[in-house]
Amino acid sequence: MLTAHVIDRLVFAADAHRLIQSLADNGMICPLPLRARLAHPVTADALALRRLAQLTFGPTSTSRRLVASLTECQNADGSYPGSADRDPLATAAVAAAFSALLGNRGQDDPAALAAARDRAIAALAGMQEADGLFGGPDDRTRQDRQLTSAFILFLLSHDDAFRAAVNFAGLLDYFDEHRGRLESETEDLVEMSRPPEAVEIERFNHRCAA
Fold first, then answer.
1. Residue 134 in 3-state DSSP?
2. What is the pLDDT along the chain (210 residues), one digit of tens a residue?
3. Which ranges of 56-87 does DSSP label H, i.e. alpha helix?
4. How many helices (H) and strands (E) does the chain have?
5. Cα–Cα dist 101/107, whole Å
6. How far is CA 157 from the centre of its chain?
7. Bridge partners for 134 per DSSP
């Protein structure tokens, strides 16, 4: 079982590959084609922080350490380095982690945390392409972009700030239009990442009005 204590130990050991494997073993979807990118130290730390926020009800010594290190390595444009200098996966992972922390009470500086989260989401919006998908230097094929975008959707589909900042309708429309033609790992992520019902109703009403 991946407890807060185990996460503390893995973070302290800086064992990013084992950390991602532990998250996967305990139920987080970590598609094999993305494992190497997710095991980048920034991305792995962010995913660990997200899980730690889900397991605890306030700041811990490890969460404070991770927030400090992740805030420090944020690029000037709000993005985060991962497998590339501006990596959409790393940026989405940090945004998701900071949003998870903001859902807990007692954060040391929630305004600064929210500002860093918002800068990451704005940078992520800048990585979204006209077809609705996200992509970075490591996304060399359409299938790569589909899987990266599905993982970002998995992390942030229920995040109000993310949905407001990006072309969320375009992202969902892309996956709806390509349903049945996606690779199985991408399809599974999309199906697990449907937004709240109210968002779907609003999207339906917008389509009808158009």
1. strand
2. 788 999 999 999 999 999 999 999 988 989 999 999 999 999 999 999 999 999 998 889 999 999 999 999 999 999 999 999 999 999 999 999 999 999 988 888 999 999 999 999 999 999 999 999 999 999 999 999 999 999 999 999 999 999 999 999 999 999 999 999 999 999 999 999 987 664 555 555 556 655
3. 61-72
4. 12, 0
5. 7
6. 9
7. 128
What Cα–Cα distance (Å) separates residue 89 from each residue in 61, 79, 132? 25, 10, 15
Instruction: Tell me, yes or no, if the pTM score tops 0.85.
Output: yes
What angle in degrees, to the nearest 10, is found between the helix axes of 88-102 and 61-72? Answer: 140
The b/e string for 175-206 (b: 16+ C-beta within 10 A; e otherwise) is beebeeebeebbbebbeebebeeebeeebeee
In this structure, what token pair is assigned to residue 57?
């009800």
Token pair, residue 124, equals 């992520």
First-residue to last-residue Cα distance in the chain: 49
- Give Cα separations from 169 to 25, 84, 165 (angstroms): 32, 27, 11
